[in-house]
Design brief:
single chain, alpha/beta, Rossmann fold, Arc Repressor Mutant, subunit A, 2 domains, two-stranded antiparallel sheet
Length: 336
């Protein structure tokens, strides 16, 4: 069972709480429909004092847990703060050491919008990348000059600390977490349920200060770049090692150690990311897309895509391009 908690304060935006709840709940339900032993997700709402909290928008949320008595968590969400975050920062000042302890325990913590100020006040963003709501960039920089603010990224990750710049971006992060917890097939199924036409892959939206980004193995970096450059070709992974002056077995070991992935899995991920973009943005046929990413067999590409994404390439294209309304001026279809 995964345990997720959201801290509730009066000026919190409820959508930054309810959207993660719905996405992660959908992921858990979908996973359990396919595998009965898949773990569920338990959500807790926590406030300064356990009980009902009425938000500034008039919505009342029941918070059965005090923020001082949170159990061990897999994820803590700090919801977006309406307008200036300073009143909430001051209200939570005495609790910030508790936030530091939660982070030190390895719990994933995600701030939404200007809630990144809570992380910054606690010193958890010192020397780390972070983002916040775009309207607060200048004030955030002035107040927290020790934080590496990433104004061009809607999501940042540094170890177990995540910041997202908007409520929409929390959906991208939750799809990423669903993939981590339940696998890519479940994540894609949930992604398609929650407005696939506006979702952006976590890897392309996020600044990640992680071992995969930070590793210093120059041979592996060269191999990663080589795979990127030759993704459209028939790649022989057995030939890669000698090309970089090491054995294939040594390269495989070092590649996995540096990136957390085997070279073949890394190449497949590159190909699937490119395939998704081509399905979204081009009119190429399925066979043409397979050829573009270095796979000569369209049937094998379809199988690989479905294994990675939970749907066929055709279903994915239909989902991401689906529109509710007919174009203006288009005549209504004749009745059958």
């Amino acid at each position: 069972m995964y345990t997720v908690a959201a801290l509730i304060y009066p000026d919190a935006l409820a959508t930054s709480v309810t959207l993660p709840m719905e996405i992660l709940s959908a992921a858990a339900q979908t996973a359990r429909s396919r595998r009965r032993t898949a773990p569920g997700v338990r959500f807790l709402l926590a406030a300064e004092t356990a009980g009902a909290v009425t938000l500034d928008n008039g919505l009342t949320l029941e918070c059965p847990v005090s923020q001082w008595e949170l159990p061990a968590l897999d994820l803590l969400i700090l919801p977006a703060i309406w307008r200036t975050p300073l009143p909430t920062v001051r209200r939570c000042a005495a609790w910030l050491p508790q936030l530091q302890a939660i982070a030190a325990a390895g719990t994933r913590i995600c701030s939404v919008g200007t809630a990144s100020s809570l992380l910054a006040e606690a010193g958890l963003l010192d020397g780390r990348p972070a983002t916040t709501h775009w309207n607060y960039f200048e004030r955030f920089l002035r107040r927290y000059p020790q934080v590496h603010l990433k104004t061009r990224h809607l999501i940042t990750q540094s170890d177990n600390i995540y910041c997202v710049g908007s409520v929409n971006s929390i959906a991208d992060l939750c799809v990423h977490l669903a993939e981590d917890w339940y696998g890519s097939g479940i994540a894609r199924a949930v992604e398609h349920q929650f407005s696939p036409e506006i979702r952006q892959p976590f890897q392309s939206a996020a600044w990640q200060d992680t071992p995969q980004r930070r590793h210093h193995d120059e041979t592996v970096l060269l191999a990663q770049q080589w795979l990127q450059d030759h993704m459209h070709c028939a790649v022989s992974l057995q030939d890669m090692g000698p090309a970089f002056g090491v054995s294939a077995r040594t390269l495989h070991r070092r590649f996995r150690q540096a990136t957390g992935m085997a070279p073949q899995a890394y190449l497949t991920a590159l190909r699937m990311n490119t395939a998704r973009e081509l399905l979204r943005r081009s009119n190429l046929s399925i066979a043409e897309i397979a050829w573009q990413i270095g796979l000569q067999d369209a049937s094998y590409f379809s199988q690989l895509f479905r294994r990675s994404n939970g749907v066929t390439p055709g279903q994915y294209r239909e989902a991401v391009r689906g529109k509710l309304f007919d174009p203006p001026g288009k005549p209504a279809p004749a009745p059958p």
